[in-house]
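Entry 14. Structure prediction run on the chain below.
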Amino acid sequence: MTYSPYSPYSLYSPYSLYSPYSLYSYYSLYSYYSLYSYYNLYSYYNLYSYYNLYPPYKKLPSMFHIIVSKEIETVCPNFVGAAVEAFVENTPYSEPLWQEINAMGEKFRATLTTESLKQLSGIEATRRVYRACGKDPSRYRPASEALIRRMLQGKPLYQRDTLVDLVNLASIAYGYSIGGFDADKIVGDTLSLGIGREGEPYEGIGRGMLNIAGLPVYRDAVGGVGTPTSDNERTKIDTNTNHLLVLINGYDGHEEQVRANAEYIVELVEKYCKGRDAHFHIYGKKE
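Output returned:
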């Protein structure tokens, strides 16, 4: 072995491809070529590395902090939710997505009635919370129930755009009422889940001003953005939406199902909306 500091074969040479001290070595912590180097843009140890900045190599933290209020904990101590975020490309319509939606409708018509659907875990629990909050769930139906009920009656679901249609499919597939939002329209980085108050202004999508007193409601820094019955016009998804936030409401407390629903949404946005950086986190669960 040579010990020359000028030899390309020496372990002590700054010019050696084999030296841990060389700027040209694959083994050096200081080399741009080393997978172990802080300076290599492809290294897991570089904070600015491709592998650290972009999934699937690294999950992104949530941009939103979700707070479940004491008033919700009182009426539903087992509540568990999931927040899904992704960067997306929305489109006016997706034929393959609607094939999935129609297939789901056929399945429901073969297995459910307008009465038995109320016994689905997510729907039954949401109706129970409505009653505990003082709201009639037959007058203000949870969105998941309303969508499935419409299918059972032989009526087509309303077609909006690919993101909205996708969120509706995820809702009926698991029976949870799900809120879909343009994340860039939400004011602030915190959403709190509470109960609507008398006279609280709220414009439901396609419903005009909605009386949300007694309804569970998510609020941002300005006011209400979503209830299990209807989301708000102010933060609604449109064809220009490229940053998606979805909130899954598990009033039945079944974390595994809520988690599976979140994973399903990630799958759908990646499949139909070129989803990027899709990730989710669970909130509201009692440790």
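The chain has seven helices and ten strands.
Filed with the rest of this week's runs.
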